[in-house]
Amino acid sequence: MITPNHRHRLAVTIALAVSLPFAFLTPACVSTAAPTAPDPQAAAPAPTSHLDLGAQNLPESRNVTTLAPGLTRTTITRGAPNQDFSWTAEVAVPSISPDPDAPASALSTQAQAQRVADKVNAAGVPARVEHVQSPQLADAGGDLGYRVRAGHFQTKADGTATVDQIKAAGFKSSVIYTGWDGDAGTSENDRGPWNLQVLTIDPKEFHGDLTSSFGPNLEDRETTSQLSAAAGALAAVNGGFFTMDPAAGAPGDPAGTAVHDGKVLSEPVADRPSLILDKNGTSIQRLHWHGTVAGPDSTGLPLDGIDRVPGLIRNCGGTDDTPTNLPLHDFTCTDADEIVAFTPEFGPTTPAGPGLEVVLDAQGTVTAVNHTRGAAVPAGGQTVQAIGADVDKLAAVAVTGKKLKVDADLLTESGKALKTTPSTDVVNGGPTLVQDGRLDVTAKRDGMVRTNDSNSFFYGWVHKRNPRTFAGVDAQGRTLLVTADGRQTTSLGLSLNEEAHVAKSLGMVNAMNLDGGGSTTMVQGGQMVNSPSDATGERPVGDALLVLPGRKP
């Protein structure tokens, strides 16, 4: 393994002008080769000498650092501070729903927005109504509604008095930065700035590994820096979505597909895209869940999930869940009747509570049937929990001293089981950004569009600029891992539409979004190289993508 000092000696930093060919600038894209190669008939995007982001002809600089043969990190800075952007007070518009408990939202109809603006004006605060239109994506976008804002301020603190006046008038309000709006598009006043980091791995030259890590167990969170340091990684980025709130499950637990060293540790959210890392390459595939539990003489019972709190399905996308079986991002669906399996990787003990828990040894033999939940998982074994109506069903097939077969399979879109080896890792994410060389932002399919919320979730999560982490593969089979800083005046972040355009301009033929926001982090040699947006600093995450050095000959 290369020591930190060796890694330091390998690092060579080269400052490049954007006029140089991008093929020389772009970090080699990673890959453990893709299980499904890019469509050769697709129009593979050619890497460009500048990002497709903001106004044309913006200043852009790129610095390339070689971390190892076939592994580079490119720092991209585009644009410059823009005096056209300012801080402004945004008003939460009360719902027009007949439900008195319906929450206020950022957007509403034009008539309701104007009524609110009139009341704010009457309170002595000049307010304006703005029409919000979002770029059309693959399955969402267009007219989002109207927002109410007041004032233009040089600093966030300057807007405090105006917010206080708006609150005194009976409305919720906060100060936001107009540069974080996602509706500026490519207009000439949309001049940034943006800061991005790009890791490129070329499998033809890089002899290390691209893998994932969740740390000592699934249910606890660690920072990307901690996960990187523990593995001696050359570089790392944060990985997939995960549970943060204990009310939504076990904090740190993947909120979507997870496979580590070939072992399935978390089921998919419906058929959201997954990033698959394997010795044959990196690919993006939509996977489906198929799980069963069966005794020696019984028909298999449906297995709802693996390594998560029964009854709580973060991001939804399960079976017989409330309120939906479809993906619903940043939402926790429920199911009163579930069977969930647990592996030793989950943590010291499984979730405690009423129900049934069956303990299996490494040979799949039932060693205990407990009439309450919460136990240590035997080394090499597993447990199976049931709640609600499924308690009696599981009890009927689990007999002490007998075998209990637990199958947890990931199916490809063709319906075949995903073939895994000890070198296979899978990380969840979504939506897709680029498919077969074409822009394909599937926000609605992957649960980023909510009904009956006046498009407010879409507005904040998809349309507006946020810190983003994304991954993809280019036509040469290289893997790219990208972070874009955001929620800062010095780096605006990206809307999902902008993120897709950036991915394509970096030459990706297939790309997908990973967890972002305060999670967005890139580490090199144990040190953060981007600027996370959380006020508390680097956020502990569920898992991370690690680029590991090859072994010494």
Defining key terms:
553 residues; mainly beta; 9-stranded antiparallel beta sheet; 5-stranded antiparallel beta sheet; 33% strand
Commentary on this structure:
With 553 residues, the protein is mainly β. The protein has eight helices and 33 strands. Strands 1-2-3-8-29-28-30-26-27 form a nine-stranded antiparallel sheet. A five-stranded antiparallel sheet has the order 9-33-10-31-32, covered by helices on one side. Strands 12-11-25-13-14 form a five-stranded antiparallel sheet, with no helix packed on it. The longest helix has 13 residues, at 110-122. Mean pLDDT is 90; it is low at 1-42.
Topology:
Elements: H1 4-10, E1 12-17, H2 22-25, E2 60-68, E3 71-78, E4 87-91, H3 110-122, E5 127-134, E6 142-153, H4 160-168, E7 173-177, E8 194-201, E9 209-213, H5 224-231, E10 235-238, E11 258-260, E12 263-266, E13 273-278, E14 281-286, E15 288-294, E16 301-302, E17 305-306, E18 312-316, E19 327-334, E20 338-342, E21 356-360, E22 366-370, E23 382-387, H6 390-397, E24 405-411, E25 425-428, E26 432-435, E27 438-439, H7 456-463, E28 468-474, E29 479-484, H8 496-505, E30 508-513, E31 522-524, E32 527-528, E33 544-548
Parallel strand pairs: 17-20
Antiparallel strand pairs: 1-2, 2-3, 3-8, 4-6, 4-7, 5-6, 8-29, 9-33, 10-31, 10-33, 11-12, 11-25, 13-14, 13-25, 15-16, 15-24, 18-19, 20-23, 21-22, 21-23, 26-27, 26-30, 28-29, 28-30, 31-32
